[in-house]
């Protein structure tokens, strides 16, 4: 009976040795894959970054200019393609520049304030606070600032406009970030 126990111990020791060898082989495979990834990504592991504030530059003025350009392009596309769906009268394109510059400045300031002082509101609202503040801005511009020179068709149209604006701006931001990434990769070589 003791011989049977020794055989079981031997088998179990042999099995353990085989498992250890298999693990060592797997470790070697993982090391090789890591080396290949390092070569592929230039010695660094890829990092996924999520930027809720969409900061284009650390310099506030440059960030403001790029945000203004993106907002203006988005506004202009919506106004030129879908003007009849949202706006009842736009008497001057200068008003469009003023509205977009005001929106850009307003956005940059409230984002900076909310991210510094009230980050929990941004996190709990999942960014909906930005949407609501943009709608508030458009209502303010529509009802108080420009009056009859710039107005939406109805009270619901600023909300729909901001939804379309946010989606289209997101697409333009993604395109901008892809171009920036492509240019940065080319400059590293």
Q: Helical region count?
A: 6
Work out the helicity level: over 70%
Q: How would a textbook summarize the main sheet?
A: 2 strands, antiparallel
Q: How much is the average pLDDT? A: 77
Side-by-side strand order of the widest sheet: 1-2
Number of domains: 2
Quickly give the structural class.
mainly alpha
Shape label: elongated
Q: Beta fraction of the residues?
A: under 5%
**Which H/E pattern describes the elements?**
HHEHHHEH
Number of strands: 2
End-to-end C-alpha gap: 71 Å
Low-confidence stretches: 48-53
- Rg, Cα atoms, Å: 29 Å
Name the descriptors.
78% helix; 6 helices; mainly alpha; 2 strands; 189 residues; 2 domains
Describe the overall structure:
- It is elongated and about 90 Å long.
- α2 packs across α3, α2 packs across α6 and α5 packs across α6.
- It has a two-stranded antiparallel sheet.
- The chain folds into two domains: 48 residues; 129 residues, no CATH class.
- It is mainly α.
Strand-helix topology:
Layout lengths: L1 H39 L19 H27 E4 L2 H25 L1 H7 L2 H18 L4 E3 L4 H32 L1
Antiparallel strand pairs: 1-2
Give the structure's gist in a few sentences.
The protein is mainly α. 78% of the residues lie in helices and 4% in strands.
